[in-house]
Amino acid sequence: MATKRHHHLCSSYFFLLLPLLLQFYSGESQLQFNYYAQSCPKAEDIIKQQVINLYNKHGNTAVSWVRNLFHDCIVKSCDASLLLKKAGGIESEQASERSFGMRNFRYVDTIKEALEEECPVTVSCADIVALSAREGIVMLGGPRIEMKTGRRDSKESYFTEVDKLIPNHNDSLSTVLSAFQSTGIDVEGTVALLGAHSVGRVHCVNLVHRLYPTVDPSLNPEYGEYLKRRCPTPNPDPKAVLYARNDRETPMIIDNNYYKNLLNQKGLLIVDQQLASDPRTAPFVEKMAADNGYFHQQFSRAVGLLSENNPLTVDQGEIRKDCRYANSITNNVY
Questions:
Q1: Which of 129, 245, 255, 314 has the highest Cβ tally under 10 A?
Q2: Whether this model's pTM surpasses 0.85
C-alpha cells in the first residue's frame, strides 16, 4: 500500500514538474542576461560603441537595426538568417520582396569585425542583431531595453518562408495581429511594436494605391495632398528615392506622435489607419497617444518578446565567423 502511495506521489510530482522541465529545455530558457560575462566581457559595450559610431556617421543605421530585428525574428527564429548572402545553395532572405528598402547590412560586418578582434568566434550574429537593435532604439530616443543573450546563428536561410511570415505593407490588421500572435505577442504588444513606424518611411510604390486615381477617404485630405506631392505619379520607379514618412514632426524619434497621427487620420499604410478604427486596437492607440511613457513600456515588453522568439541555443546552429556566410561556406572561401 505504501509503495503504491509512494509511486502515486512520485507520478504527481513528475507531472507538476513537467512544464518546468519543458521550459528549462526550451531555447528561450537558455538565453540569459550577460551571457558573455566570462567569454567576452566587453561584447555588449563594443556593440554599443559601434552603434554610436555608425549612427554619428550614418544616422539611418539606427532605423536599420530595428528593422533587422523585426525581419529576422518574425521569420522562424532570432538566428541571423536574414544576414546570409546567396552562396553555396543558400538563397538570401534579403532578395525577398518583403525586404524591399532594407539597407546597411554591410555595417553589421563592421560590428562583427570589432567583436572578432576582441573575442574570435564567440559572439553570435544573432546577438548582434538583437543588441544593435536595442542600442539603435536608444539612439532614436526610445527606451533602453534589457535583453538576454546566448542566441546562436542559423546555418540556413528561410527565403521560401519570408513572404508567408512577414506581413505585407498593406495586409489587413487581422493578418498582422495573427503574425505577431504566432510569436507570443498579444494585441497590446502588437500595437506598441507598430509604433516603430514612428521612425519609418514608406516608398511610394507601397502608397500610390491609396492616392490614385482618387485619395483614400480614410486619409486626412490635407495629408493626402502632402502624400501626392511626395508621390506625384501613380507609377513610381521602385529604384528612385521616392518616399513619405509616417511622422513629419519627430521623424527620427520613437515616440507616441505615431498614434497621435493615426487619430488624425494620418496613417501611411492601411494597417496603420486600421489600428485607430478597429475595436480590438483602438483603445490601445488612444492610450498610447495620450501617454508616451505607457507606449515606451509596452514597446519595451514587445521588443523583448520578439527578440526571444524561438532562438537557437546550446548545441543548435553555430557561431558564424562572418555574418554573411555559414561557416561551412566561409571555411571554403578563406
A1: 129
A2: yes
